[in-house]
Amino acid sequence: MRIVDARIAAASAAVLLLIVLSYFFLDIPVSLYCKGLNKSIVDFFGIVTEFGISTWYLVGSFALFLFYRFFQRRPLYAHRALFLFSSIAVSGIVSNTLKVLIGRYRPEMFFERGLYGINFFNFSFFNFSHGLTSFPSGHTATTFSLAWALSLFFPHTRVPLFCFAVMVGASRVIITSHYLSDALGGAYVGIMSVLFLKEIFGSLDRKFSWGFKL
């Protein structure tokens, strides 16, 4: 096993452990605390959370791909834009698939009906109801995939990019749209999507000589 693979496996095990611990010990207390926060704080993070919507990132990165591919004819920038688009798209597909497969109650269901966890007993797998699509956080997956992908191209921006991603992930918990473990899961999905695509794009670069380097 390569060293990098071992590190990814170790990090994945650590994140899984954090998610499990959060699920059993932290999710409800943290959500109850956030429920009682001052309205001005919640309103502020309600604005922050809007930056986790993937639509404009997808549209913008794909528009850049088309621009650099067909107008400017700059393959390096075109492939970087395509990589960014693919990273956000794949993280969204994975997170949305997991949401409907797992069927976890959102915090609103706990506050309104006392329901917590995964809805095993009503056989609601593949349920698209908003209240049953808590894990993982799609907004968090989007911003972490965005931050990780951009930091590969601009390493000096890594710290502010990940501060931004953490802020958006935290906002999902603070406005009680998600649990803490949902945000952790979303961050993991976002980062792993980028790592997966990094291998794919690297292989394509070696095969077709794109000039695309990560």
Percent in strands: under 5%
CATH homologous superfamily - what is it? Phosphatidic acid phosphatase type 2/haloperoxidase
Tell how many strands the DSSP assignment holds: 0
Termini gap: 22 Å
User: Number of helix segments?
Assistant: 8
Which fold name corresponds to the CATH topology? Vanadium-containing Chloroperoxidase, domain 1
Helix content: over 70%
The sequence of SSEs as H and E is HHHHHHHH
Any idea of the CATH class?
Mainly Alpha
Q: Pick out the low-confidence regions.
A: none
Label the structural class: mainly alpha
Mean pLDDT: 92
CATH A-level architecture: Up-down Bundle
Largest β sheet strand count, sense and barrel closure? none
Structural domains: how many: 1
Overall 3D shape? elongated
Gyration radius over CA: 18 Å
